[in-house]
Fold these 4 entries.
Entry 1:
Amino acid sequence: MYLEYQIVCLLVIVHSSYGNFGYSTRQQHIWAQTFKRCSGKWQSPIAISSTKAVPLPLPAVEMIGYHNFLSGPITMKNTGKSLSITVNKELSKKRLPYLFGAMLNESREYEFESLHFHWGSKNNRGSEHILNGVRFPMEMHMIHRNKAYVDISHALEHEDGLVVLGFFFQLQEEDNKKLHSILSRFPDVQWNNTEVQINTSIALASLIPHNIDIFYMYKGSLTTPPCNEAVAWIIFPTPIPISFKQMNKFRILSNGEGWLVDNYRHLQDTGNRKVYVRRMDSSSASTPDMVDLDILGLRWFWQ
């Protein structure tokens, strides 16, 4: 029974199927009536500006196991709100990928839980975060749980519960062959609340850009109800290529009433939050600045 409870919590809370909510302007406006946390002060997504971000020679994000094929049953699901990919960790034969580093507590590790996408009906919208005034056609979120907490439901009750990696997609003429293993199964999940087991091997590293040296970090929330402010966001500016043809395959998925498109939350007020950017210039790379940087002493908010 407990295993079943964990799976339900994972699907309900993380994969955007928590309650009855929609993405129209009116529907987003009333999220907070049902989900009180959605009116919090540190909500996501936000607009990120490279000129306003605080540059620091932060440690890299260390991604362990990202080049290994995911082990265990991999499920792709059309939740009606997004397209999600999860791994049944109870049946996994190997340890799931995990990460540490950056501004995270050095004594904590964050284990991969799932990934999902947000996209638009047009090429000029879709991503949840905006970078330097640009809204990309799609954004992928990789969710990681602080291993100090037994499951997602417990992690969501702590401000250091989750780390979410955000990746933008940029359109090009040619197909991105690395996305084929996912896109080839879309006919099986075209309709709302349908799912399929993926039998082909998938490594998380194959889905992300090669250049992950530069990234932005800030404290925020889930971008869907219940909007818990339990997320350390790491946003990578280097986009993932995707062809026009591949992008359109997302736009013919169904949400049960019509096309599953424009499933992104409106921008939230940054407020007093700091946005940090990892920037390694020649001076900081050749000095002990990075070694001497007091990560735990950094503040997420302006005083």
Note: Helices lie at 2-14, 25-29, 31-34, 152-155, 180-183, 244-250, 282-285, 289-292.
Entry 2:
Amino acid sequence: MPALLWFRRDLRLHDLPALLDAAAADGEVLACYVLDPRLEASSGRRRLQYLYDALRDVDDNLCGRLHVSHGHPEKRIPALAKAIGASAVHVSADYSPFGRRRDDAVRDAMAGVALEASGSPYLVSPGRVTKDDGTPYKVFTPFFAAWRERGWRSPASSGAESARWIDPKDVPGGVKIPDLGVELELPAGERAARRQWKSFVRKQLDGYAEGRNRPDLPATSRMSAHLKFGTIHPRTMVADLGKSAGAEAYLRELAFRDFYAAVLHEWPDSAWWNWNKSFDKIEVDDDEDARAMFDAWKAGRTGFPIVDAGMRQLAETGFMHNRVRMIAASFLVKDLHLPWQWGARWFLDQLVDGDMANNQHGWQWAAGCGTDAAPYFRVFNPTTQGEKFDPDGEYVRRWVPEIAGDEYLEPIVDHKTEREEALRRYRKIT
């Protein structure tokens, strides 16, 4: 019998277990994607452009045999399954709070057709790395040790040739893949992801451990958006890593990605609420002056060069170097005393790689209210951080060119004063 392969955060054909399962019944397979208006409304334009470009790449790799429709999945997926007489709908598991609610709704709407989940966007799926008593880890270091010990499967041997594909022209309800006309800094899709990864392994991996904190150097992989949309699976990447110091450092970053996904899966409220509930009592500023400070931060006009460089890079490209993300986040919550949720929401709007687990728990790390959070007394000094990680000022000059003259802003706050104010507020709740 035919089967439906429903793409979500797995926009690729290689290393895709759900594809192999869909083809295993020896029937034809309809490849589909549903443009969910809820996700369209909550995603920034650059992230949507990446999605649309990646969908075009899947369609090209399938020789035009991707069926794209628009609407709520709990209506569209049962309709597509009925249209082709599908025996099952095959997906990669989604562990996000939104994804779990969506999939439950689809299951409830499908009479007699199973929603079969296999694989996930992670090396080790959320919920599979636990303490001996079955409880989840709250600290990264022991999670990392258990995660490595558990291990992961080899890449799945899937590709376009794995299935006999149904022509979407024979299925009603299809729409054209949108195009917002937004220019992306880096190309999207599976072919771009595989090229970029191979280039990083060849050119930058060996120096990754030393260079990954330097925004002035081309030392990072820039694979975050590809991982967000699943145009490459981390299993595929890990198979190329080897045992160098750079490879070990990179593997640790992939483990952090799995850790934050596991935390969000276990504590779904932590998407927008403090994981550490004692921080619910922290004093934050949210008045008109606070909004003005927030606007200055968003525009990269704080008078702190490394912060402004990062915010301008974000606004212009939809990307910000990870070290600079931490500096900019610390500045917002500890120098400006603003709610971390304001910054997290802005990042999700702007970032091409905006991922709920990574973004929200990265922000909570900076704010001190999450798992493995930075101690409340650790307040990044944006000036010394810039001097340490952009020692020649190359990154700052690229994004804040007026710093070379007399036109640059005065700092909007005094860091020493605001550090003491932040510590006063934190001490009140500890």
Note: The chain has a mean pLDDT of 96.
Entry 3:
Amino acid sequence: MTQALYLLGALSAEVEVLACSPSEDGRFAVHLSATPFHPQGGGQPSDTGKIAEVDVVHVAIEHGEIIHYCTHPVDLGKTLAQVDEKKRHYHSRLHSAGHLIAHIMHLFGWQAIKAQHWPNDARVQFIPLDTAQQLDGETLQQQCSQYIQDNLPTHFHQHADGFREISFGEFPAFPCGGTHVTSLADIGSIEIQSYQFKKGKLIVNYSVAEEVA
């Protein structure tokens, strides 16, 4: 099984290329001993970057293995794997923003049931708990801005069985295998784009700027 270095925040690493085979779509499927590349999953897009100067355009988990899809073949043996740092940081900020929204909404009695943290289509879906309070998008955005200004630190909890949780400040931990900012100020700002009810569920769409001002 490929060692998941991205869980430790790695952006580059010397790795061993164990296998490289052509795929039906013309790309090449590469299997590494360890990887700094976050695969698509948990509502987060995959990292991109380079393995031995060959472009990595997508990373996926297939049959329990992390597969790196590259534009050209990669020689077997030891080499350098390098993640696109700018894109990783953007994805991490989007993911952390979604978690912050979920934390805040939970304070008001709303339970997150589904989320995706995609550029141009980031959203969190909620159902009301018995303690649910009514609020609006403007109030939620103000709450987000306040916690970002307070710059709460991110805490990672990696359990021995591989189960991983993240939290901000004193918020309770949420299960997550994604990448995140080191503290909330790194998010920059969150824009609540829509706040709407559909079939008994609340859907919050949001965005963050591609770069922190």
Note: Helices lie at 85-107, 137-150.
Entry 4:
Amino acid sequence: MNKKKRQYPKCLLLLATCFVTFAASAQDDEVAKAQHTILGQNSAQVGVSVPIRNTHPDAQWFPQDGFGLFIHFGLATVHGGIDLSWSMLANKSWEDGEITPNAYWKLADRWNPVNFNAEEIVTKAKKAGFKYIVFTTKHHDGYTMWPSKYSALGVKQKLNGRDLVREFTDACHKNGIKVGLYYSPPDWLFDAQYKNWDYSGKKILDMDHKEINRLPEKPAGHDQARREMVANQMRELLTQYGKIDLFWFDGGSGEISNDEVRKLQPGIVINRRNGEPGDYGDSEGTLPTKRFTGWFETCDPCWPSRWWTYSTSDRMDTGADVIEKLVILRAWGGNLLANIGPCADGSLPKEALEAWDEIEKWMKHSGESVYDVTGGSFPEKANQPTTIKKDIVYIHAFPNFHKTIVLKEIQSSPKQAILLRTGETIPFSYAEGEIHIQVSPEKRSRMVDTIKLTW
């Protein structure tokens, strides 16, 4: 995973083109491209649109559920000032703490997430409205979160075999939450001796960030051995934990084919970061800037706001921040995968729980507008994001928007407009194919206000 590219503003600004945009720097775009290149993901793989590929009935939940939780959990959380795996690279061009690979892996001796309670996390996530959860089973650092037979470092070696993946999947199955597994085929531990740990490439650094003249040559069969290890680890994940609804690759080159994945889990949804076509398009750390086709998901750091793993100092998103991102994506039929990094002991940051409470309250009155819906006509024919469910249109008014809401090319006048947060009827006008709605300031809130139009 890459670092988040920038912070979203609290209130979205509506431009003259009626399109919501977010600030992003060219330098940050280059960081994302660089990291994707390291992981073997070219621009064609990490793009915007992709046709639907898995037509299995069990896979059709993906565009309907719309709201997922990403959990990045691992060794880096012990430190509190570095991100997962990427912090091992010296002389990076982006913001992150720095640690030598050897010092990073020694964090495993100190890591003991005694307060990781998968049941509690999943039940709280469900209350907040998350429909699926993706859990990091192994990041690029090579630490396996299940007692794999094919791993040199992981819970088998350091946590007395405690199976964190089992705890997670069991909790999801028990609570009716879709199960997603993140897995990184690149394994920097396996390749540690043969990898230059200097990101800039201006010199060659070993695992202690000491400069050396050259890297040792890989022994014969090394790369094939890694491919076999990856394939075997994936088969463990796909056969030992019951039904898996989504597999989230982060790199790789077809070490195990999508065809084999589907034989093991026929109804599974697969992303497209393993060198093979997947089921949906994606963006990372930034919302798409144009309408996409097919299924789509944006994964975005939220708790903390810019890193994937827990940070002692980075800001955390509010519930309002997350809802704003969610409704933009749902207005185009896409999903939001909001990331959280649990603390070193396995507990959740208090700021995240506060945000989840805020999201839960919003979902109680407006959740119907983001689940099992299709995208509306924003921004071409609506100046605020809209979603559609049969003969219902939902309008999402952002907190900073106080102009007249306009929907164009509407065939007939709706019967009523209801402000979902309060249940009260909102006045509107209809003429010449346009609906105009002006919500008075005293009826507005500091979160997205949803108006339900019925015919």
Note: Confidence is low (pLDDT under 50) at residues 3-27, 43-47.
